[in-house]
Amino acid sequence: MAIRLIEEADDLELHAALTSRSDLDEMLGADVALDVTHPAASAAIVEFATGAGIPIVVGTSGWSSERITEIAQFVRGHDDAGAVLFVPNFSIGSVLGSAFAALAAPYFDSIEIVEAHHAGKVDSPSGTAVRTAELIGEARGDAGPVAAPHADQRARGQLVSGVPVHSLRLSGVTAEQRVIMGGEGETLTISHSTGSQSAYEQGILLALRRAPEATGVVVGLDALLDLGLPGTVA
Ligand SMILES: NC(=O)C1=CN([C@@H]2O[C@H](COP(=O)(O)OP(=O)(O)OC[C@H]3O[C@@H](n4cnc5c(N)ncnc54)[C@H](OP(=O)(O)O)[C@@H]3O)[C@@H](O)[C@H]2O)C=CC1
Ligand SMILES: O=C(O)C1=N[C@H](C(=O)O)C[C@H](O)C1
């Protein structure tokens, strides 16, 4: 789908389309790279691109904030390193859903995330859920950590920034996320469903067009949408 988008866009030209059997050197000469591969392959691809001074858009999931910080340190330490734009989710609706969750987070002490993906997804929790939980953690500030009672029990999910995340892997699903918040006598649910991969098209094109002018390491399409969320890794 990414290849088709690039080929169809008047202002973009496909330099090379790599597979798992390609030599990363095929990237050389490109103005921008797009990594949508596999969590086990992504680190080497990103390191190659930044080392070669090629700005890269990373859609591949499975990146921890620790690894992103390491990449940010490398980029900061090398003037000629290519910028890295990590995009946990290319869907505008998903990005807005995460932003709305961050906005509401200080007002609800109980917050949990339930994400569902197709059965072929190899990593969990999803990159989107990790990003959403991190935004919630940051947004809470003085409100302190989310209440996550009995979180030591396995069925209570995996804590990300103190937020329990529950992952479902189901046939018949593309990608879904619900952020459920509990307060005094009420709950608020922020829900997003990806019905088709076409949801990613607008975000992929936006990221590819903006990456060449990016500097350092940027996390989240929200940074390009001027939503005012934390996105630039200092
Ligand atoms: N940010 C976002 O909005 C989205 C992110 N994703 C993420 O993108 C990633 C890919 O997802 P999906 O497209 O469903 O996965 P697929 O398994 O369908 O496709 C992965 C592709 O990556 C290629 N590939 C694997 N390893 C390498 C490598 N070392 N070098 C070059 N190419 C490689 C594979 O090629 P080959 O055929 O040779 O194996 C294959 O074409 C996942 O991490 C997923 O979570 C997915 C959707 C949206
Ligand atoms: O594997 C997928 O399909 C997706 N992965 C990304 C993630 O981990 O959040 C983005 C989207 O949810 C689709």
UniProtKB/TrEMBL annotation:
Q: Which SUPFAM superfamilies match?
A: Glyceraldehyde-3-phosphate dehydrogenase-like, C-terminal domain, NAD(P)-binding Rossmann-fold domains
Gene3D superfamilies in the cross-refs: Dihydrodipicolinate Reductase, domain 2, NAD(P)-binding Rossmann-like Domain
Annotated ranges, domain Dihydrodipicolinate reductase C-terminal: 98-225
Per UniProt, residues of the Dihydrodipicolinate reductase N-terminal domain are 20-90
Q: What class of enzyme is it?
A: oxidoreductase
Q: Which keywords label this protein?
A: Amino-acid biosynthesis, Cytoplasm, Diaminopimelate biosynthesis, Lysine biosynthesis, NAD, NADP, Oxidoreductase
A Pfam family (short name) is: DapB_C
The reaction(s) catalysed by this protein are: (S)-2,3,4,5-tetrahydrodipicolinate + NAD(+) + H2O = (2S,4S)-4-hydroxy-2,3,4,5-tetrahydrodipicolinate + NADH + H(+); (S)-2,3,4,5-tetrahydrodipicolinate + NADP(+) + H2O = (2S,4S)-4-hydroxy-2,3,4,5-tetrahydrodipicolinate + NADPH + H(+)
Q: Which residues form a coiled coil?
A: none
Pathway stated in the Swiss-Prot or TrEMBL entry: Amino-acid biosynthesis; L-lysine biosynthesis via DAP pathway; (S)-tetrahydrodipicolinate from L-aspartate: step 4/4
- Give a GO biological-process term: lysine biosynthetic process via diaminopimelate
Does the keyword section mention Transcription?
Answer: no
Spell out the GO cellular component terms annotated for this protein, sorted alphabetically and separated by semicolons: cytosol
Q: Which GO terms describe its molecular function?
A: 4-hydroxy-tetrahydrodipicolinate reductase
Q: What is its EC number?
A: 1.17.1.8
Matching NCBIfam families:
dapB
Entry's family note:
Belongs to the DapB family.
From the Swiss-Prot or TrEMBL record, give the protein name.
4-hydroxy-tetrahydrodipicolinate reductase
What gene does the UniProt entry assign to this protein? Answer: dapB
